[in-house]
Write a structure and sequence with these properties.
alpha+beta; Phosphorylase Kinase, domain 1; Aminoglycoside 3'-phosphotransferase, Chain: A, domain 2; 2 domains; five-stranded antiparallel sheet; 10 helices
């Protein structure tokens, strides 16, 4: 669990005077996440998530919050931001930008099957179609420029073999930097713990803290790398063809992928693996102070990248 900024009952009560939500019934920290401080909040009016944005600059918040509002209005299962009495989606709480979003029903699945993957593929395609109508634009804060910066920062903590792998992959990815793929707002972090299910139905897509304007197929590759690993062979980082086919086929039925997106499937999977390996190395070796902090193990994405490099996946036969 990560709580970088503690919010007391008194802090909360003073801040909530901005809203017309009635009395607080329950308030507790959320046992997940590493980027922001999150709390469950229940009031007389409903259930919410309170988020204090620890890294996002205040000037970038309108991109994220307006994106969630846009998606929710379009019928995507995204949490709608709660406006305060002035109509604003955020304000400062204990020195950090903070806002409320609706708490959605459902729970993540620990071991997704092909049906879950198909549901996620369709949900992601619907998100991308809606996002193409969103006017906001924001460069990806965890894009190639950040990859190089993070690689330099963690270099002293890594083995020569690890640094060689990262250096080779950065060079490989540079060859694709100018390829033009369809772009719009992406989720950027659609892992299993960021999708809620009721049965086999997607009931919520949460945690838009890594949303940005980027290649839609890259967002799909990020999703596949987490949802479609071999269920009984997680140490290898290899993909399960059945679940890949289910997820990508469902996505493609809703938003057909272009030739160039299919052609770059292997490099996109490698880029997604590199990005999350570097991000987890960075959080592990250069942690931020917090009351309770949790960093994901980077080893899993090191294995995933090695697997994608050793046998670069081809686009699945749909």
């Amino acid at each position: 669990m990560s709580v970088y900024t503690t919010v007391t009952a008194e802090d909360l009560a003073a801040w909530l005077t901005r809203y017309a939500l009635g009395a607080v019934q329950a308030f507790e920290p959320i046992e997940a996440g590493i980027e922001n401080t999150n709390y469950f909040l229940t009031t007389d009016r409903g259930r919410y998530i309170l988020t204090l944005y620890e890294r996002l600059p205040a000037e970038e918040l309108p991109f994220y919050l307006n994106l969630m509002a846009h998606l929710a209005r379009a019928g995507v299962k995204a949490p709608a931001p709660e406006p305060d009495r002035t109509g604003a989606f955020w304000s400062f709480l204990n020195g950090k930008p903070a806002g409320l979003v609706a708490r959605l029903d459902g729970a993540p699945v620990g071991r997704p099957d092909a049906a879950h993957c198909a549901a996620v593929g369709q949900a992601l395609a619907e998100l991308h179609l809606a996002a193409k109508q969103y006017r906001g634009r924001l460069n990806n804060r965890r894009g190639p420029g950040w990859w190089r910066q993070a690689a330099r920062a963690v270099r002293p903590q890594l083995s020569p073999e690890q640094n060689a792998l990262i250096g080779a992959e950065l060079k490989y990815q540079a060859a694709f930097a100018k390829r033009k793929l369809p772009r719009a707002a992406i989720h950027g972090d659609l892992f299993c713990d960021n999708v809620l299910f009721v049965g086999n139905r997607v009931s919520g897509i949460i945690d838009f803290g890594f949303a940005a304007t980027d290649a839609l197929a890259y967002d799909l590759a990020i999703t596949v790398n987490d949802w479609c690993l071999q269920p009984d062979d997680t140490l290898s980082g290899r993909l399960d063809p059945e679940r890949v086919r289910a997820l990508v086929s469902a996505y493609n039925e809703t938003r057909p992928l272009e030739f160039e997106e299919r052609a770059l499937w292997g490099p996109l999977l490698r880029a997604a693996a590199l990005r999350f390996w570097l991000s987890r190395l960075y959080d592990l070796h250069i942690p931020r102070p917090g009351e309770l902090t949790h960093a994901h193990d980077p080893v899993s994405f090191e294995r995933i990248l090695k697997s994608r490099v050793a046998a670069e996946p081809r686009f699945p036969d749909l």
